[in-house]
Amino acid sequence: MTFYDDIYPFYPLQRTPFIFSTSLLTVILVFLVLTVGFLLIVPGIRGKSRILWTFRILISLFIGAVIVALNFTSDWAEASLRANTTYKSFSNVMVNAEVGLHVGLYGINITLRGDPVVQFNETIDYNEMFVWTSSVDEEYENALNKGLPNPILYIAEKFTLNSPCGLIYQYRYSGRYASATLWTAFCCWLLANILFSMPVILYAGCMMATTAAFIFFSLASFSTIYNLPQCTFTIGTESFETDFSASFWLALATGLLCALIGIVVIVLDWLFPEKMREAFSVGVDSDDDDDVYSEKGYLNAGFLEGVSLDGVIVKGTGKEPQQISTLTVRFLFSQQIII
Question: Residues with Cβ < 8 Å from 175, sequence gap 6 or more?
Answer without folding.
Answer: 76, 104, 105, 106, 132, 222
